[in-house]
Amino acid sequence: MGAKILIVDDEASIQEALRQLFEYEEHRVAVAASAKEAFALLESFTPDAIFLDVKMPEMDGLEALTRIREHDPHVPVVMISGHGTIDTAVDATRRGAFDFLEKPLDSDRLRVVLRNALALRGLSADVARLRDEVQERYEIVGASFQIRQVLERVEKVAPTDARVLIVGENGTGKELVARAIHRLSRRAQSPFVEVNCAAIPAELIESELFGHIKGSFTGAVSDRAGKFEQAKGGTLFLDEVGDMSAATQAKVLRALEEGVVTRVGGSKPVHVDTRVIAATNKNLLEEIGAGRFREDLYYRLNVVPIHVPPLRERREDIPMLVQHFEHRLCQRDGLPPKRFSEEAIEWLRRSDWPGNVRELRNTIERLMILAPSPVIDVGTVRMLLADRGGTAALAADLLSAETFSDFKERAERAFILHKLRENDWNVSETARRVDMPRSNLYKKIERYGLAREE
Hints:
alpha/beta
């Protein structure tokens, strides 16, 4: 399907020539004889490109271009004129014109300009789509008091250049908080560079952070900028900062104090304007007491602390998170939509989630893929997640029972399911091993809705 093209020119011959050319290329074309007519059309006809005459009665093309830019900052506008001058072309470019063509118009040139304009339009749309996807991917979801406290602190600290120390258990979303701070900061258009200090070998961490000079060590085949330099003007996120070696801590401290780094094997200091956000799942005060972390570095990093609560402390956010992950998985992987029953969500809400939001997200993905029906009920959740977290998860499920009778039923169901799996769902062998008549075992399988997993 072709693009939508708007032609704005007070000469009927130009309108007709452009219309015929673009309609021959299978595009949809609308025409306007004045800027006023064009603005009226913009309300119902959203063009992918506009060809706009410079000289028109009432309002000229340059003024119309400014108004169009206010209405749609991204649509490519090609200016056309029979009296083109360098000054006019410069003014049009300054106001946001995509290109400037002089009359008489050349058909081949028009086709090339239109193709380039539509390519730009498509690229702008892709960039906007990707930006929306990234923002959704890194969205902080929740309405609990605990998460609102986190978001309030993020909003206060983001516009400043203050260093932030984010603390919390694994999987709570410390990286999301760091990205939110960067996205709301004055550095949002500059790089966000992440370093996982725990994942990089100790002998390579200094090269990774500060860069190196060619020949400074085996494998250094060329000069290389480190993460501090790569994040220049933006934000450097030091994840798991508590795992840095003492030598690296000393160099990071110098970089924070002086705003300079020196590449491994080099002697020339490099000035860097980089905001540092750090995160850790360790208690750094305890690490300081044990001599594993520098106290002076701690106070350099911990200008504004943010504690990200574990999921078990904000259980009221779990239904919202389930809906968020379900929506994302349907969009990303094209999975058919599925609905969680109230009982299933309540089971998920009562679980402890030692892996926090990351574990919950993986769990929802597993359920969306493996659940056999469009409605995911509590029986399906229990069946597919029976081995989640081992005995700790089982204990959490059993202890969430409201009555002793409910507790006994849950325990019996878990026991029978475990034994059936042990015996590869051989009912006769399972009945023999648990010392139960086979007919009774069949009744319990039916009662609890047990079924072999695919």
